[in-house]
Design brief:
Rossmann fold; 13 strands; two-stranded antiparallel ribbon; alpha/beta; 11-stranded mixed β-sheet; globular; 9 helices
């Protein structure tokens, strides 16, 4: 059961898509959206940026500029949130009520500091985390995505650019017999139980892939979920490209484990996960 969903409010145009995806998920569960905006600490940022001898005067001017930018970013984020709630008829409340038990609700939160740390702090007490897809030079968004995936212990949903279909009636599972993929399937069970179609996709040349997929299908049957299998041989562009081509028009949501490599807090997505996050034309539900 999904009852609380943490959503990042960045103050960027991507917020609307993230809010919409979170609300689509919240609908069937009458879930509550905890919308979190993390603002920079202007003093900490200015001190870090000014290390030369004349840093005092420079820092003072820089702090004023950063404070103004921070206020504007929070104003825009709050405005996007308010407009979305009004347009969706979403009740804004800080505690469960009889009305919120029957329909989704939302709450606005603001913290100061580093977004990855605060999203992880809030995320450990949420059922699901919705965070924007991080591509290109979006360093903060990428750091946040990596932190919540690696450190929160919770599943995350990365919306696509297009609207998320209600209830995610068609779900594809990118299956590989690993702990990450197993945790992703477990986290997706509330969605799988409501899906109209579920397909388990493996990308392997050996016949063993079908056997692994069949075992997962048998597991799903015991949960009342009927699924089919699709085994794809890896193409010349790699397993991720083959998977995305195979998903095609078959699904509204992709479920997969988040793979990567790193040590201590140095985390780098592996090539497969990176390619999916960049190119997937549909929302991705991921767990590590």
């Amino acid at each position: 059961m999904i009852k609380t969903i943490l959503v990042a409010a960045t103050g960027n145009d991507s917020d609307t898509a993230a809010f919409a995806a979170a609300l689509t998920i919240a609908g069937p569960f009458a879930a509550h959206l905890d919308v979190l905006h993390v603002q920079l600490d202007p003093i900490s940022v200015a001190v870090a940026m000014t290390t030369d001898a004349g840093g005092g005067a420079l820092a003072a001017g820089l702090i004023q500029q950063l404070e103004q930018e921070t206020r504007e970013r929070e104003r825009k984020a709050r405005e996007i949130f308010a407009e979305f709630c009004a347009g969706a008829g979403l009740a804004v409340t800080s505690a469960p009520t009889s009305a919120s038990a029957a329909a989704p609700s939302a709450e606005w939160h603001v913290e100061t500091g580093e977004e990855p740390r605060w999203m992880t702090t809030y995320g450990v007490a949420a059922d699901l985390i919705v965070t924007p897809r991080a591509t290109g030079e979006a360093a903060v968004a990428r750091a946040t995505l990596e932190a919540v995936l690696l450190e929160s212990g919770r599943p995350i949903l990365i919306p696509a650019a297009s609207a998320m279909p209600p209830a995610s009636a068609r779900i594809a599972i990118a299956w590989k017999p690993t702990p990450q993929a197993a945790r992703a399937v477990a986290a997706a069970m509330p969605f799988l139980a409501r899906a109209r179609e579920v397909v388990v996709i493996t990308v392997e040349e050996a016949a063993d892939g079908r056997g692994e997929a069949d075992r997962l299908v048998r597991h799903l049957v015991w949960h009342g979920v009927t699924a089919t299998t699709l085994q794809l041989p890896p193409g010349p562009e790699g397993a991720a490209a083959t998977l995305l081509a195979g998903v095609g028009e078959r699904a509204d949501l992709l479920v997969m484990g988040g793979f990567g490599h790193g040590r201590l807090r140095e985390w780098v997505f592996g090539g497969f996960t990176e390619r999916v996050l960049v190119d997937a034309p549909l929302p991705v539900l991921m767990a590590h």
